Amino acid sequence: MATSTLARVWHSDLAWSFRTSKTALISSVLLAIMFAAAIFAPQLATQNPFNIAELELWNSELPPFWVEGGSRQFLLGTDVQARDVYSSILYGLRLSLIVGFASVILAAVIGISLGLLGGFLGGIVDAAIMRFADVLLSFPAILVALLVNGIARGILPPSQHQDAAIYVLILAIGLTNWVQYARTVRGSTMVERQKEYVQAARINGISGPGIMFNHIMPNVMGPVLVIATINLGMAVLTEATLSFLGVGMPATQPSLGTLIRIGNEYLFSGIWWVVIFPSAVLVALVLSVNLLGDWLRDALNPKLR
């Protein structure tokens, strides 16, 4: 049974499209490497860069090992606090991916639920949800994230800001990106609710929520998967932007955006490696996710087959 299932998956149109797409293959390999690096950061890092006991100040501001004055102990050099840049990137990548995945899940849950509700019920419920979505779309996403971030920080006492920073970021980014899911799911739901299987479910006495989540939702998840893939890159980039502006992850728990902000302060002092390498990893991560999302969108589009 398992073998036949795997065989069907292997010979499916989606799998064939993946195997024949160099862009998808390269992006997937690069993402797999970065995911593995983030998961196994404590094992791969040469030090815990945020444990003061492991830092030795005479190792500060060392260049990468191939530059004169560098050390093979610190492959990508160190910053002004003697933190290994390579190790900092591994830990920062982990935090960026956690925020990205969690915020995408939050946005998808909110957007799918509201899209199903509006598309299935219609009327004033649908109008209210869509008008609210239109209002959010009229503002740049980063401004909405800054607003949510500021409100959350205003509610929390200052002593809890650092501990709650990751949760505030997830909330801010998630509440910014749910609109795309809601509009897509609403449109698909309005088409699906007119089909015979929905009418049959109503005749059999299945409740509205049961029809929405058990019958309609599985049939509208294709576009949602594409949106979620592309939004992962957007979420990581939004988190990096907020952290670069100083309202994201604190210096004691830096993401890639925080590392770039810290490195930018010393860029004109000649310590270029502190900002260049985290920036390169961020670009590679976002580019790989976006390319994979573009491939998935094309592969799931029957008009392009």
UniProtKB/TrEMBL annotation:
TM region positions: 24-45, 95-120, 132-152, 164-181, 224-251, 271-293
CC terms in the record's Gene Ontology section: plasma membrane
Gene3D superfamilies: MetI-like
Subcellular location: Cell membrane
Record membrane topology: Multi-pass membrane protein
InterPro entries linked: BP-dependent_transpt_permease, MetI-like, MetI-like_sf, OppC_N
Domain ABC transmembrane type-1: start-end pairs: 93-293
Protein keywords: Cell membrane, Membrane, Transmembrane, Transmembrane helix, Transport
CDD domains with a match to the protein in the record: TM_PBP2
GO terms for biological process, alphabetical: transmembrane transport
Record carries keyword Membrane: yes
Similarity comment text for this entry: Belongs to the binding-protein-dependent transport system permease family.
Protein name: ABC transporter permease
Species for this entry: Roseinatronobacter bogoriensis subsp. barguzinensis
Lineage, opening ranks: Bacteria, Pseudomonadati, Pseudomonadota, Alphaproteobacteria, Rhodobacterales
